[in-house]
Each structure stands twice: as C-alpha cells, then as structure tokens.
Design brief:
With about 190 residues, the chain is mostly helical. Helices cover about 60% and strands about 0% of the residues. It is globular, with a radius of gyration of 18 Å.
C-alpha cells in the first residue's frame, strides 16, 4: 500500500542561520573535548545527525556565540539522554544516581572541584562548561526551571529502580519544564536574542 503525504502550506519562508558551518565545526570539537563522543564510529553517527543544521533552522538569527551555546545544550540533552537510556550509564543504577547528583550540584553551585586525577563523567564535564557559559548572561529565573527539570532526571528515576517508565509519569515533568509544553520552562530565546 502506497501513501502520499499532502502538501503542507506554511506562510513563513524557511530560514537557516548563515553560521551553520561554524556551529558544525564547533560541535565536532566540543563533543570531543568534553568526552561526550570519543569513538570514531560514534563521531560518524553524530555528524550524520547534523545538529548544526537543526539548530540553524531553529535559530536563524542567532549570532555564532549564541548558536554554539544553544547547539551545545541540544547536543548535551540528546547525548546524555541516550547514555541514560541505551549507554553505559543506563546499565548501572548506582552510576546514574552519582552522575545525576553531580549534575544537580553543578546547577545548584555546590559541586566540589574535581580531585587531582579524578575522572568526571562526560555528562558532568559538558554540563559544567555549559553552565559556566550560560549563567553569566541569563535572566535570574533560569536556574529554577533547570533545577526543577534536573529533579526529574533520569526519566523519573526508572533507571534507578530498574523498572520501566510509565508514559504518563514520563510526560508529566516534561510538561512542567519544557519550553513548548504547558507552562514555560527555560527559554532559549533569552540566549539568542
């Protein structure tokens, strides 16, 4: 059975940020520096996802610095979510608990400095960098929705208890914290205006 999608009318012209090439290069460097992507096969899959093009379409007027920051946040969210679902983090409830606690401490400003020789998880290293670059220019209420969202990582604790996520429970906190669902969450428009 063949089906054909109808034409979808959109009264707005598609726009793409002219700095997409720059952000692609930035992301390739950033994911390696933070350790979010380290294997060549993973890097190939990451490049195929083309987060640079995605962010360039979502924020067509952002300057390169803000586009880099928003792209880094998108990448961090997607890759950490994948690590919690399908990666090594998701296989160890104790590791998940430790990583999420460390991420909360970064957002709360209570994270201790790494000890000499201590290896932090890539998710934490990347979040430390993001938080340091985001908070100086962000509106004061930014931290509250982010703290609220981090209280629901990972997926309402289903990894911590070893059980399956109940869809209704998984969606509930996202409605409260998502910029697009229900009540306002952390708005990226403040970072790109």
């Amino acid at each position: 059975m063949d089906s054909e999608l109808p034409d979808i009318y959109c009264p707005f012209p598609q726009r793409t940020n002219p700095h997409v090439g720059h952000v692609r290069g930035h992301l390739a460097t950033w994911v390696r520096q933070t350790g979010l992507v380290h294997r060549e096969s993973a890097m190939n899959r990451f490049e195929q996802a083309d987060f640079g093009a995605f962010v360039g379409m979502v924020y067509p007027t952002a300057d390169p610095e803000h586009l880099d920051l928003v792209a880094d946040w998108f990448v961090w969210l997607f890759l950490v979510d994948d690590q919690l679902d399908d990666g090594h983090l998701g296989r160890s409830p104790e590791l998940v608990r430790a990583v999420v606690d460390r991420m909360r401490a970064v957002v709360d400003g209570t994270a201790p400095a790494p000890l000499p020789g201590e290896e932090l998880p890539a998710a934490v290293i990347a979040l430390m960098d993001l938080w340091e670059r985001t908070t100086p220019n962000a509106a004061p209420p930014l931290a509250d929705p982010v703290r609220l969202a981090s209280g629901h990582l990972p997926h309402d604790g289903h990894h911590l208890g070893g059980g399956q996520t109940v869809p209704r429970a998984w969606c509930r906190p996202r409605r409260r914290t998502s910029p697009s669902g229900g009540t306002p969450g952390p708005s990226t428009s403040a970072w790109t205006s």
